[in-house]
Amino acid sequence: MTIERQEVGAMTMRAWDGAMAPYTSNQTVVDKVLPEMLHLIDAHWYQFPPMDPLWYSLLGCTIAVLCLISVTGNAMVIYIFTTTKHLKTPSNLLVVNLAVSDFLMMACMAPPLMINSYNQTWVFGPLFCAIYACGGSLYGTVSIWTMTAIAFDRYNVIVKGIAAKPMTINGALLRIFAVWLSSLAWTVAPILGWNRYVPEGNMTACGTDYLSKDLLSRSYIVAYAIFCYFLPLALIIYSYYFIIQAVAAHERAMREQAKKMNVASLRSSDTANTSTECKLAKVALMTISLWFMAWTPYLVINFAGIFETAPISPLGTIWGSVFAKANAVYNPIVYGISHPKYRAALYQRFPALACRPSAEENGSVASANTAVCEEKPAA
């Protein structure tokens, strides 16, 4: 009996030693990288042992699920908004543009990431690494600047009220063109020599080089963060600060007028609880908050690299990729929950989804995050 236990113990130790061999030997996370990719790998990553294959499997499965949800959800948003007559407004073109960028994010980025997760390294070579990273940066930048345009549209309608100049189809298309052009300029810059695109620490995706210590590389990360993260954030905060002020003033004026008339409320029953403006502001704020939740981890990783404020591990870079790409999933879900006319149109086309809006929602004048309000705040 004792001999049998010893044999079992020996077999267990050999199995354990075999499983832990990569972590106790000189093997690193870089070992599987293609030879033509090695010039892009920073020396920082050579200190890390190979990642547990389980993490690659989890990454691949997670991205596959997110891809399915995002591609399906955003395709429905694009289809509904472009084929439903009463949703074809200038403001809703911004919503469609947001859905297009989210759709492209997962449709283009997820399949290579799943293939690389299966192979546990980047297998497409240096050229596609740059194209892949440029695409991910482009779609993310288009997303945040589109949300900024949506915030300004809300500001124009709610804060300026009757004095606001309504947005036209040409005006919306011009804004969309400007968003794509400016975003493309920022994301092509590393390909032209201002910074560069390199494999990330987990070696399954590519992004900006935040480990190079030269001034040119660091300056791009800082400038990109300012103009594609902090500036949009500041503009959105500015817009919603005055939107909330206008909504509060409007609600206060309605309550005072109701008191003078000795009635409980001046609102009709379908909008007694919350104004249309407030509903729209909440939806847009939710969408934008989710965007910043998604991209902030990636910003933190980049800043930790250029300023050397915290150690960066290959496993940590996985979370940055997952959170960033998960942003493309949020918007269709937000629309489905809080967009009455979108839900009504979706129910008409796809009744099996059981997303029929309530009677109160059917009576609402809200059409989208960016639909033009029927109700104007008091001056």
UniProtKB/TrEMBL annotation:
It is a multi-pass membrane protein. It is found in: Membrane. Visual pigments are the light-absorbing molecules that mediate vision. They consist of an apoprotein, opsin, covalently linked to cis-retinal. May play a role in photoperiodic photoreception. One of its GO terms (molecular function) is G protein-coupled receptor activity. InterPro entries: GPCR_opsins, GPCR_Rhodpsn, GPCR_Rhodpsn_7TM, Opsin, Opsin_lateye, Retinal_BS. This is Long wavelength-sensitive opsin. GO terms for biological process: phototransduction; visual perception. The gene is PgL3. Coiled coil: none annotated. The chain crosses the membrane at residues 54-81, 93-115, 121-152, 172-194, 221-244, 283-307. It comes from Parnassius glacialis. One of its GO terms (cellular component) is membrane. Pfam families: 7tm_1. It comes from the Eukaryota. Residues 73-335 form the G-protein coupled receptors family 1 profile domain.
